[in-house]
């Protein structure tokens, strides 16, 4: 299948599935792909510098200050999660990885009270 040009301009993009594609632009705007190439992106409230979308519909993000958020679909808002990261990647709601400002690697513990476990490397 050849590549297809989708209108828009993003600095980061994450595709968990064909129906769960999210991105952020250079101004930290958040966008979700609609699946309709005539109006490809819908703006989502908030400001993020990195984003991770998972196959199960989960979306995680990091803002320019390093704050971490998880998107809550049923109420359409971002929930803050303790910690500080500069990059984030999500495979599922509980399979989330990140890198902090010191380039240390972290894995989400699944427990929001102590959310991050440092991984050697």
From TrEMBL:
SMART domains: TECPR. It holds the Pfam family Tectonin. The keyword Acyltransferase does not apply. Keywords: Lectin. InterPro entries: Beta-propeller_rpt_TECPR, Tectonin_beta-prop. GO terms for molecular function: carbohydrate binding. It comes from the Eukaryota. Belongs to the tectonin family. This is Tectonin 2. It comes from Laccaria amethystina LaAM-08-1.
